[in-house]
Design a protein that fits this description.
- The longest helix is centred in the N-terminal third of the chain and has 27 residues.
- Helices cover about 35% and strands about 20% of the residues.
- The chain has one domain.
- By secondary structure, it is α+β, with helices and mostly antiparallel strands.
- It binds iron/sulfur cluster (SF4) (2 copies).
- One iron/sulfur cluster binds next to helix 7 and helix 9.
Length: about 350
């Protein structure tokens, strides 16, 4: 059996890449030090020594084309399917690595890419068992964007992350040099967020010799409300892929009330009537099935600033989604307004107050 060693580290890193990851990083108790509570390896596996974290890009083919079509409201499904499948592949890689480690004598636990939350924290805070992104930035997967997401030189933030926590003493990888971080605080991720989830104030974390800076965050439900389609329009000329337009108030408790009591129940009704093609499974929604209608902060971010700007322009000119005979189509904001004004109350209640 290999000991604490480079051999096993290289085998596991190679395994992640062979199975479909684009990047892999290793963190240890020492390199994580006493960071945020969501980096505690013991929470996943008592006595754990290290963690393997990896990124799976949404696509290695025409991801650019799929993102452009998603942002321009030409096609929703193509990119959504890629994102869902990348997440599933990341989970599969975690399962396979933990299986191998177990078989050769090491304790190991796979940690889901997403949609699993700590049961000892209130569900509305959506606290993950382990912060893949903190482990990813501490390893050498990518940098911390001002959005708070991991950004990679190759795929921007369009990657799914998952991890394996193990008793094996793997050799840590080091954070990438901060001077290579392409984030210039352009804040296009802010501009693409109808939920106002990101706050333009720096949240600075110092770990060892490294400093990570991200924007502070508002209540997590500000993202949840918009991200999975309970609402998708605030004002202006564009929406997300959601046809709903429940208000997005500044006050968190008001927002949570509308989300939970009004928008989410009728979202389930709409989905029951119109169906969902694809999507993913989530514990906190009626019927447990939902789809991505936003992800705009993630999709707009690209290593090249001119592409970021072009992507945001596509979004800004994409129009407002309305649902007609079960199909979601973009129209101008004025047309959408007229459609809602003429809609019978029995149908309108499925989309707005
Ligand atoms: S969109 Fe701009 S500010 Fe946001 S993470 Fe990307 S580069 Fe940074
Ligand atoms: S997914 Fe959408 S709502 Fe959530 S933070 Fe990103 S842009 Fe905002």
């Amino acid at each position: 059996m290999p000991n604490q060693d480079t051999d096993l580290t290289e085998i596991i890193k190679g395994m992640a890449l062979t199975l479909g990851a684009s990047h892999v990083g290793i963190t240890t108790r020492k390199t994580l030090e006493d960071w945020h509570f969501t980096t505690e390896l013991d929470y996943i596996l008592d006595g754990a020594n290290s963690a393997v974290t990896f990124a799976v890009p949404f696509d290695e083919g025409d991801m650019e084309g799929s993102i452009d079509k998603f942002l321009a409201k030409e096609d929703h499904k193509e990119l959504e399917k890629k994102k869902v499948r990348a997440t599933t592949l990341a989970n599969g890689i975690a399962l396979e690595i933990s299986g191998l480690l177990n078989q050769i004598g090491y304790e190991a636990e796979p940690v889901h890419a997403n949609f699993v939350y700590r049961k000892d924290s209130p569900s509305e805070y959506r606290v993950p068992p382990l912060s893949h992104k903190f482990l990813a930035v501490r390893g050498d997967i990518g940098h911390m964007g001002y959005s708070g997401m991991i950004i990679t030189k190759e795929y921007g933030s369009s990657v799914a992350l998952a991890s394996v926590v193990t008793g094996a003493k793997l050799k840590p990888t080091r954070s990438l040099p901060e001077e290579e971080n392409y984030c210039d605080k352009c804040k296009l991720c802010f501009a693409a967020c109808l939920g106002d989830y990101m706050i333009d104030e720096e949240d600075v974390e110092k770990i060892g010799d490294d400093t990570y800076v991200a924007a502070k965050k508002a209540h997590p439900l500000r993202c949840s409300y918009v991200c999975t389609g309970s609402t998708g329009y605030k004002e202006g000329k564009w929406s997300t892929w959601s046809p709903a337009r429940f208000p997005i108030p500044e006050d968190d408790s008001e927002l949570i009330k509308i989300f939970q009591e009004k928008a989410k129940p009728v979202q389930f009704e709409r989905n029951s009537i119109n169906g969902i093609e694809g999507g993913f499974y989530h514990p906190f929604y009626p019927g447990y099935r939902i789809e991505y209608t936003c992800s705009l902060c993630q999709l707009v971010c690209h290593p090249q600033k001119e592409i970021r700007i072009a992507r945001y322009k596509k979004l800004a000119n994409s129009g407002v989604i309305v649902e007609k005979n079960g199909e979601r189509i973009p129209v101008t904001a004025e047309e959408a307004q007229k459609i809602f004004e003429e809609m019978p109350a029995s149908k309108k209640r499925l989309y707005t107050d």
